[in-house]
Amino acid sequence: MGQITLDRVTKSFGDIAVIPPLDLTIGNGEFVVFVGPSGCGKSTLLRLIAGLEDVSSGSIRIDGKDATALPPAQRGLAMVFQSYALYPHMTVRNNIAFPLKMARLDKAAIDRKVEAAAKVLNLTSYLDRRPGQLSGGQRQRVAIGRAIVREPTAFLFDEPLSNLDAALRVNMRLEISELHASLGTTMIYVTHDQVEAMTMADKIVVLNAGRIEQVGSPIDLYSRPRNRFVAGFIGSPRMNFIEGEAARGDGADCIGIRPEHLALSTESGRWSGTVTVSEHLGSDTFVYVQVEGIGTLVARAGGEFPVHHGDRVWLTPQTEKLHRFDAQGNAVSSAAPGVKVA
Amino acid sequence: MATAHSRAAARLTMSPAVVLLLGWMLIPLAMTLYFSFLRYNLLMPGQEEWIGVLNYQYFLTDPAFFAALGNTLALVGGVLVLTIAGGIGLALLLDRPFWGRGIVRLLIIAPFFVMPTVSALVWKNMLMNPVNGLFAAIAKGLGLQPFDFLAEAPLSSIILIVTWQWLPFATLILLTALQSLDSERLEAAEMDGAGAVDRFIHIILPHLARAMTVVTLIQTIFLLSVFAEILVTTNGGPGTATTNITYLVYAQSLLQFDVGGGSAGGIVAVVLANIVAVFLMRMIGRNLDI
Fold first, then answer.
1. pLDDT value of residue A338
2. What's the confidence (pLDDT) of residue B288?
């Protein structure tokens, strides 16, 4: 159980339409990530599903039942907020027990479930502390604990990792993925971080200005972006876009090539330019090259690539990895055989 | 900052204020303490003599003292309960968006700016008066017998007047506290299945605890010394029905001309206020420990 269907859902605040008519189906047990730049409506969409905002029109079905008019508590969903929204005057135990107390469970059952959740999340030794005495990661786990004790049909996460430092974020990312694997419950996760989206999702929903730009698996979005927006949003560093004369040579208004698909050479190649910056990360080197008539291109070289500011280098794109876009920014079929463009 | 030089400079620049404040507080306190051990009656000038603790003995065994103590506690407690309960109610209402909210907020604050003497007179003559008052007019309009508030229920009437004055203060403090409540916390509680009543009991009230403590502390300080409202409305009567400790000290010193006895009463009031303060500080200490 845990299928969520949005049918022609819209949301407007006053005269401003935040979400134009939108259809989406989230399958049982899927880990779906809503990703997009800030202000794209991804949090609003999550809050519509949670019931914290009313839809302006359209309907939401959870497990086949119409939930459009149901209050949040009766939708059977649990949400983890960006600020964690823990209750500061309650101990960790009482925080986790709160939804069970509200469901009027008996004390023994509450204790058993809280202990079980605490064990899963390594919180057992912190049960009698207040949230104020915990670190960011521990607070995050308490918020997750409060969500899992309810045994919801689906979890909703609203940018849960954005308040954590980089190292902890990687850890929590793994923990949430493991939790999904062990519980098998549907999870909807909102983030603006495409790395989180790529690493965690079964299915990514890319949103822009309230519209769904593309839905697909991470690799699908990476290798077959439907338009320039998705192509630019997924992947780090972002895809290079080349317009004008150079693009028309490839039979498109705009061509895109990812940094990892540009071959770097110090001797010869298709385009030549001068190095402006080279970032040495150890495992990779990202070289920013100023190419005349095209602009700055980023290329990735594996390992160490000994170039410096002002050096002349040559770049050659892997033809089968070129993305072609028309004047509207939509992907067009490639002339090269064997490459499918959705 | 904390070099020997800066510390010395800080002490030097602070000292005038400290000396002034100490003089302001300590000299009257010391004089009151001194007077409380004298037989000092304004009708017998020049005959002051040391009588030890006799003033205290008279004051503390005076039946009026116990009545005044009870009245003081009833007044402070009654006003605190009413202002905090009413303040929470008004704050919850004013926190919601409605048309004309800015004006309504301004009007709610207004009673706080009316001086106690004036508001007590307005209540006494324009509202509670059994012949000309608004309440009497309403009662007559409904065919009921007008109620003589200050004669029939004097202490309750004074509690009502003082509550009217302090309700804006409580509302203001509680409203700001309410506005600092993270809306995500309420939404989380809503997702957790808490209805409006549960959200109020488990989320909003605990969040307001600190503000309620502040309101209690500050109001208690002022409510222990309520005087003008009693003087203009009931003069402490009928009998001692509305005499609080402050009014009793005034009556002793300036109506019975017994400055010595009044001073002893003043010192007793200081001791009582400090006992209350210790309890309140303990309560605050616990509430600030969140």
1. 41
2. 61
Q: Looking at the domain assignment, is residue B125 inside a domain? A: yes
pTM: 0.79
- pLDDT, tens only, A257-287: 999 998 888 888 888 889 999 888 888 889 9
Query: Is B44 inside a domain boundary?
Result: no
Residue B47 covered by a domain: no
Q: Which residues of A touch B193 (CB under 8 A)?
A: 73, 99, 102-103, 150
Q: Which two tokens stand for residue B135?
A: 């309440």
pLDDT exceeds cutoff 80 at A195: yes
Which domains, and CATH codes, for chain A?
4-228 (3.40.50.300), 237-325 (2.40.50.140)
Q: Point out which residues pair with A79 in neighbouring strands.
A: A156
Is A312 in contact with A272 (CB distance < 8 Å)?
Answer: yes
| Confidence check: pLDDT of A3 > 60 | yes
Give the number of domains in chain B. 1
Tokens coding B9: 């400079």
For residue A66, what are the CA distances in angstroms to A4, A26, A71, A156, B94?
A: 10, 15, 12, 18, 35
Question: Distance (Å) from the C-alpha of residue B184 to the closest C-alpha of chain A?
Answer: 6
Alpha helices (H) in chain B, listed in sequence order: 4-35, 54-61, 63-94, 101-109, 116-121, 134-141, 149-152, 154-179, 183-191, 196-199, 205-223, 228-233, 245-250, 259-287
**Is residue B9, in this structure, part of any structural domain at all?**
no
pLDDT exceeds cutoff 70 at A337: no
Question: Is the ipTM beyond the 0.95 threshold?
Answer: no
CB hemisphere CA count around B231 (13 angstroms)? 16
Looking at residue B57, its pLDDT comes to 87
Report the C-alpha gap between A239 and A223 in whole angstroms.
11
In terms of residue numbers, what domain contains B221? 52-287
Asked if residue A206 lies in contact with residue A36, where contact means CB atoms within 8 angstroms, the answer is: yes
Cβ atoms < 10 Å from Cβ of B147: 15
Give the span between the Cα atoms of A226 and A215, in whole angstroms: 9
Phi/psi at A13 (5° precision): -105, 110
For residues A297 and A291, the answer to whether their CB atoms sit within 8 Å is yes
Identify the contact set of chain A against chain B, taking CB-CB distances under 8 A. Answer: 50, 52, 71-73, 77-79, 81-83, 85-89, 98-99, 102-103, 130, 132, 146, 150
Q: Which residues of A touch B195 (CB under 8 A)?
A: 73
Q: Do B191 and A82 touch (CB under 8 A)?
A: no
CATH for B230:
1.10.3720.10
